[in-house]
Write a structure and sequence with these properties.
Shape: globular
Distance between the termini: 39 Å
Strand order of the largest sheet: 2-10-9-8-5-3-4
Helix content: 25-40%
Bound molecules: pyridoxal-5'-phosphate
Number of strands: 14
Strand content: 15-25%
Structural class: alpha/beta
Number of helices: 9
Oligomer: single chain
């Protein structure tokens, strides 16, 4: 067996400890006589897995009692529709367009109502977070939407916009559990787990009680109502049981490590290693305004498409995988999620330094 350093933006690296536990429990979970994959979702064993996962997540994120935690399916993109279907009473919402994922969310929401662009950084290919200081909130907007960490472009919103009392809805898929967040500031805070929390197939939605309502858009399918899942504790139908189990193991791993505060320190350290190198490099440079740089997704380029391609192909061979940038941005992107060890970042920077040395002009 030889495991590589996997810099994929998602699905992404998982903690080795978690994979080992999953391996050990593959044939028999506890004394159940079966794999988690084979269990009834109504069994005691699975209910315990689900409720323990929820409680551990509540501890990790310090989730207040007036918020529900929902384990849903359909990936991040399903939320782009579920949010307007459940929240739009005036058929109006404000979206901050700071990258590909918020743009996609806004496009989907346009099916259901009038979408206003509250702020945008499209003018510079989303290489910065737009200024919120004179952001206009539409008086009848049902909510304000942001993507707090733009996975493709590598920006993070560090100061939340003033929504003038409107519920703030935030996609935190690619920064889930990477740093402390104050859940109280959000109406809905949600993420697909395949970036930083578990295997693809689960979307976690943390939603304030008053936003879980019956008076959703009339055509909303039962499965697309937050209320359906909240009333049934995420067990309305068969949930993605095995994937939830793995998320639970990741939560335990994080708790053991010291929680979100502890992993945040490690994440800051890892990102600093790479950004410091980029800032001193004559060959490579980061593509994002310094103040808005993501700790999770780090895009960089050489300035030459040929060199970028050569770098990616050589990095692959050296066991530094999935370093190629998103097709809309080009260049490279290293995702430094929670489970990426510091050694992985050091190996990447050493490799970059060697490449730079060889390509000195
Ligand atoms: C990956 C990603 C999504 C989309 O997730 P899917 O599960 O593929 O639909 C949405 N938002 C952000 C920020 C992402 O990184």
């Amino acid at each position: 067996m030889s495991r590589v350093f996997n810099f994929s933006a998602g699905p992404a690296v998982l903690p080795e400890e978690v994979l080992i536990t999953a391996r050990d429990e593959m044939l028999e979970y506890g004394n159940s006589g079966m794999s988690v994959m084979e269990m009834s979702h109504r069994s005691k064993d699975f209910e315990e897995i689900l409720f323990t996962a929820e409680n551990d997540l509540r501890t990790l994120m310090n989730i207040p009692d007036n918020y529900k935690v929902l384990f849903l399916q359909g990936g991040g993109c399903t939320q782009f529709a579920m949010i307007p279907m459940n929240l739009m009473r005036n058929r109006s919402a404000d979206y901050v367009i700071s990258g590909q994922w918020s743009k996609k969310a806004a496009q989907e929401a346009k099916i259901y109502g009038e979408i206003h662009e509250a702020a945008s950084s499209a003018d510079k290919n989303f290489s910065y977070v737009p200024d919120f200081s004179n952001m206009k909130i539409t008086p009848d907007a049902d909510y304000v939407y942001i993507c707090q960490n733009e996975t493709v472009h590598g920006t993070t919103i560090r100061t939340l916009p003033d929504t003038k009392g409107k519920p703030l809805v935030a996609d935190i898929s690619s920064m889930f559990l990477s740093e402390p967040v104050d859940v109280n500031k959000y109406g809905i805070i949600w993420g697909g787990v395949q970036k930083n929390v578990g295997p693809a197939g689960v979307t976690i939605v943390i939603i304030r009680d008053d936003l879980i309502r019956d008076d959703v858009m009339p055509f909303t399918p039962t499965m697309m109502k937050y209320k359906t899942h909240a009333d049934n504790k995420s067990l309305y139908n068969t949930p993605p049981c095995y994937n939830i189990y793995i998320c639970g193991l990741v939560f335990k791993w994080l708790l053991k490590l010291g929680g979100v505060q502890a992993i945040h320190k490690i994440n800051q350290k890892k990102a600093k290693i790479l950004y410091d190198y980029l800032d001193g490099s004559k060959l490579f440079h980061g593509t994002v305004e310094k103040k808005d740089r993501s700790l999770m997704n780090v895009p960089f380029v050489t300035g030459s498409k040929e060199l970028d391609a050569e770098f990616c192909s050589q990095a692959e061979k050296a066991g530094l995988r999935n370093i190629k940038g998103h097709r809309s941005v080009g260049g490279m992107r290293a995702s430094l999620y929670n489970a990426m060890p510091v050694e992985g970042v050091n190996a990447l920077v050493d490799f970059m330094a060697g490449f730079e040395e060889k390509h000195k002009c």
